[in-house]
From TrEMBL:
Signal peptide: none annotated. Residues 18-116 form the FAD-binding FR-type domain. It comes from the Bacteria. It comes from Pedobacter cryoconitis. GO terms for molecular function: oxidoreductase activity. InterPro entries: FAD-bd_FR_type (IPR017927), FNR_nucleotide-bd (IPR039261), Riboflavin_synthase-like_b-brl (IPR017938), SIP_FAD-bd (IPR013113), SIP_fam (IPR039374), SIP_rossman_dom (IPR007037). Coiled coil: none annotated. Belongs to the SIP oxidoreductase family. Pfam families: FAD_binding_9 (PF08021), SIP (PF04954). This is NADPH-dependent ferric siderophore reductase.
């Protein structure tokens, strides 16, 4: 939902009240200079949720951006989102400005259901924009006892973030001119000694990186039905 006329956005909020919820910021903490965890409060009693569900924020009169929920507690009436504060767009600007006590209207959780709960093994690939999804899925897998691992390509200042968030993942340095190259090298190195290629794969984040990683998986014989992918952003494009 990248850009729509203001009158349509206004009409959505007024004519579809069941699709929106009133939320307030309970707390916000920077995990790193670019990564911010925000806890929201809302009435969640009648709100459906599944791992990987996302909400939409109206960030301007004409623009919405979607963000994945990392943690959801219906009884406590709280949910959390891990934001990437990159400074290159209105969504990032909004997240950087949100503070305790702020009130805003957000769509109810929805979006694609990526989680393949029938698989025993799971593998993640992504970047800073993928953190919320991975935390949500890993929390779910802790409940089910499933196996999960992954690799994240991150900027140098964010290399310690996964550990600070409390989950294990291989971390490689993001190289702008070579999307996913180091992550692919890591996958190839462990595929020689492991059964990782039998996993369900979740590829999110930068479109160019996702495409390269997906091509590699298919060349390695992984079935398309076991590859879930969703580009969150692309150089020069807005609204993904």
């Amino acid at each position: 939902m990248p850009y729509i006329p203001k009158w349509i956005a206004d009409s959505m909020e007024s004519l579809l009240p069941s699709k929106f919820m009133n939320a307030s910021v309970d707390s916000s903490v920077y995990i790193s200079p670019e990564i911010k965890n925000i806890v929201f409060t809302a009435n969640l009693k009648e709100v459906d949720f599944y791992p990987g569900a996302a909400v939409n924020f109206r960030i301007s009169p004409n623009d919405f951006r979607h963000y994945t929920i990392s943690s959801f507690d219906r009884e406590a009436g709280t949910f959390e989102i891990i934001f990437h504060i990159h400074g290159n767009g209105p969504g990032s600007d909004l997240a950087s400005q949100l503070k305790a006590g702020d009130h805003l209207k957000i769509t109810v959780p929805g979006g694609r259901k990526l989680y393949h709960k029938e698989k025993e093994r799971h593998f993640f690939f992504g970047d800073e924009t993928s953190l919320s999804l991975y935390v949500a899925l890993m929390q779910e897998m802790e409940k089910t006892g499933q196996s999960c691992t992954g690799v994240l390509e991150l900027s140098e200042q964010n290399m310690e973030v996964p550990a600070l968030l409390g989950f294990e993942a291989m971390v490689v340095l993001k190289i702008a001119d070579h999307p996913a190259q180091q992550a692919i090298s890591y996958l190839q190195s462990i595929a020689e000694q492991d059964t990782v290629l039998n996993s369900a794969f979740y590829l999110t984040g930068n479109v160019a990186s996702v495409q390269e990683f997906r091509k590699t998986l298919k060349r390695m014989g992984v079935s398309s039905k076991n590859i879930m992918f969703q580009g969150y952003w692309a150089e020069g494009s807005a609204g993904l």
